[in-house]
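Hi,

I'm pasting everything inline rather than attaching a file, because the server keeps stripping attachments. The sequence lines come first, and each chain or strand is labelled.
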Amino acid sequence: MLAFILRRIGQAILVLLTVALISFSLFRFVGDPTQQMTSQDTTLEERLQIRKNLGLDDPVVVQFARFIGNAARFDFGVSYQNRQPVAKLIGDRFPATMELAFASAMFALLVGIPMGVYAGLKPNSWLARLFQTVSLVGISLPTFLIGILLIFIFSVSFGLLPSFGRQGVVNLGFWTTGFLTWEGIRSLILPSITLGLFQMTLIMRLVRSEMMEVLRTDYVKFAKARGLTPRAVNYRHALKNTLIPVITITGLQLGSIIAFAIITETVFQWPGMGLMFLQAVQTVDIPIMSAYLLLVATLFVLINLIVDLLYALVDPRIRLSGKAA
Amino acid sequence: MKPMKTLAVVGTLLAATFLTTISSEARTLRWARSGDALTLDPHGQNEGPTTALGQHIYEALTERDHTGKLGPSLATSWGVVPGDPTTWEFKIRPDVRFHNGATLTADDVVFSYERAMQPTSDFKGYLSSVESVTKVDNLTVRIKTKGPNPLLVNSTTSIYIMNKAWAEANNATKAQDFKSKEENFAVRNAMGTGPFTLVSREADVRTVMRRNEAYWAKSSVPLEVSELVFVPIKADATRVAALLSGEVDFVQDVPVQDIERLKGAPNMRITSGAENRTIFFGMDVASADLKGDNVQGKNPFADKRVRQAMNMAINRTAIQRIVMRGESVPTGVIMPPFVNGWTKELDAAPPTDVARARALLAEAGYPQGFSTTLHCPNDRYVNDEGICQAAVGMFGQIGIRVNLVSQSKSIHFTLIQKNPPETEFFLVGWGVPTYDSDYIFSFMYHSRQGSRGSWNATGYADKDVDAMIQSLSQEIDIPKRDATIAKLWAKLKDETIYLPIHHQALSYAMKSNLDIPVDVANSPKLKMVSFKGS
Amino acid sequence: MSSSPGAAAAKPEPSRSMLARMRDSDIWHSFTRSWITMIAALITFVLIFSAIFAHQIAPNDPFNLASLSLLDGGKPPFWSPDGEWRFPLGTDQQGRCVLSSILFGMRISLIVGFLGVVLAAVIGITLGLVSGYLGGTVDSVIMRIADVQLTFPAILIALLIDGTMRALVGTARSEVLVFWVLVVSIGLSFWVQYARTVRGSTMVERNKEYVQAARLIGLGRITILFRHVLPNVIGPVLVIVTINMALAIITEATLSFLGVGLPPTEPSLGTLIRIGNEFLFSGEWWVVIFPGLTLAALVLAINLLGDWLRDALNPKLR
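And the predicted assembly:
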């Protein structure tokens, strides 16, 4: 177990280095940061001088080495646009994104799994068919349109929920949270539904199809034959067996939640890392882009590790060594 | 939800709105636009939203009102020192206090100008002609320029004055240096003389300011807003929704297609006006052959008749009516109306005449037209991509087949500024912060040499024109200077190296108890706000 | 994919291929029994048909900018007082016929989505099978590549490919180039999901009796993987394919939201929604509602077909 974890951590560092290298090679194509850093009457010579001062004309490998050297000391440089240390900017926004991702994952799981179980147990009931069809409508439109439609209905037409921003935030010193106030929870509702809708559909459909498969297996039939209550069969045996794919997909979807948070945060002006990243892309703020990618890469590697470990716990037949049987 | 409950909620909201209207003292104004200020440092970033927020905390020696008219602010009077055309003298307003109680003196002015001239400042371009700034006495400052500079006072509106002692105590005597690992104190803190004092700032979330009760001009401006909350909302639809749902009171950057709807909404007011920015196409008139066209060995844009034909092909009123929904002023010159040198005659655009344009093209040797590539930004100007699309259709009607490439501003503007430029046909917009034609000539028409002509991607180079442009910056005889400007415009308009489209208009949307006029620099002055019906 | 000790016994005999099962009359029977599936099939067919024959059906040519007139801009659908039969579903602000744009746009969206998903599935399934079956170093390498890949949202991959292509080809990028950028971006950003899912199932399957039996009788690895393991792990893949088809079209829309999608001069369904989205508050609802409804109908129908196909193909449910 320990050897497994150590090896995965070694691999993780390699992954992070690769991510950083790839991001560095792509920054050259995003545009010229000095366009956004200076006013329209700045001369070409001044712009070239700024580029040189920032080290943007060095070979990619040199820039990369410099970035890694600084990143190892948690120094990610100063944002070209905001003129603030990137580590601080990201630190300020990290909790907002994490709380949004957490709330939408909870929404997806708490709504998706019961709906999926029900649809799997009674696949021919009208309610199951309704779940099946209605859940699809939610993923038939792009995230940004769903967000705007929700704002239109719940903020503009009914005035029930705030249309933008993260409100009622309590600062705990090391973390800012919106979970402690009614205001904060209210402002979290629309963004997390927008972000979690797709995952909810995916989980519901997955649970349904897994349940249907498992219920037809011999051992479930055998359990029924033994006279176990339907409740015990359905939840102790069947549901437990659907968990592997659900764990995999949820783990993978955490990544996609963080990626799609870019769009949701932009629509709702949610002050998270995604909104900052999108603005950084548009203004070619390289220090923010590289730090964001590295951080997201770290998160993904961690999620992957956890998913793999959970796999092993749920299904002992999967050997942790990863060697061919 | 039940209709009864909806009504109750709407009722509560209306009541809340009503209450804020009649309560007299604590009046909060919640102000939204698409982008946040990048920094609070008064000399850090010369960028629209940054200076628009900054002016509520910091002030300059002079200021422009919402129509662009220059007037006194921290300076009461100014002028060129008699007998020395290279020195300007500014008299500083007495008894002005910073937010920390310190009195404004010549030392603060000298310090601020020197800070703005340092390499890390983004405002040094405005002061490139300045040799030194010196204190004469506590309330007098002299600015010595490298040569005669008749327009120096125009630059002073942009240089904000900060408290010297405060900057020194907090180690913020320079704007943020990228090599420094430390964050500059002035990025998130401020110490100016302005109508509002900073309470709190969270970048991209909100900036809260409180009324400066000791404001020096309190008796001459309304200053009715007691708390000013600035929130950036990037997505257009969300910003409009926030106004409609009553979460903000005043919105800039209103999408033009939503203006009609907002005008019809109850309790909403829309104000509109021209902005200090003209939108136009430019093209490569100098290269021997173009890469992006289908004509071999020739450059069709080099022929003036082709350029005139294209100018006639553009239906400016259709663009104004449909793409811009009326929020623009069609023009025939690349100069906003507030700029020194503007005349009604210059502003007149040629009438749209497809038949005559086709005839001109045939005369120039392109009876079948030709094909070319147009570069367009898609995130910089109001409906920039829509303008380009519409123009592509219009050029198509005279036989010029245009392949449209629209992309982000950070890529688009690099194409124009590269040397040699990497675009042969492009859309650009130009604002004139100095309100003088010289600014347009120097950047858009002068040949590319040194600091001049940096935005002239057309390759146009005319020795006489260059000489006349250079004479403008030295000429202190104003009538003589204006005559040169008129002569230049007459020649340059006829050359048609740019195809002017329109002056961009601005619209602000707000609750109907407010009436905030459009500011030509898109920098609304909220000390001027007064709440109606109270 | 998920399994229990008893499940292996329920496996069909390995020699029956997927195609053989497709031809099985059971499939046809289950198809004709479900009216929802038949409606979905009809909708899918009609939409795909009209996309293929867009040139013949569309009343106007929305891609020829020279033929557009700004003066036709913002016309409502024909049943409104200001509407015209020339533009049955109205026009957008550029004077483009909304119905024609939808037909041509749907064609582009379908092709982009289809090619992208096929590319993703081929890469993902192959790598997933190999990774899950072989394990060890191969598995580690592939899964680490997957990790790297996952950290790059489709948005970024598109930016990277778009940027690289532009550096190679020059700034004058044509619609064709953007089209392939999108296909490759979607393919490269979606494969991981297939690979991870297939790998997980394969790791379980490879220890089962039927695989060991196949190995014992001397079948080659490739034969075992593609003929025997693949049919048993394909179920979840179909769920992903159907959802991905929709996601691919929506990703395209998102990319155009960020400025790397297909240009408005040659709009896809996603681009149309992105543009129409800006007119939601302005009262010109037809610019966004019709493309939105078309997309929703298309995605819903494809998904319902996918649902049915999955149930019909799943050996464990038969």
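The longest strand of chain B covers residues 268-283.

If the labels don't parse on your end, tell me and I'll reformat.
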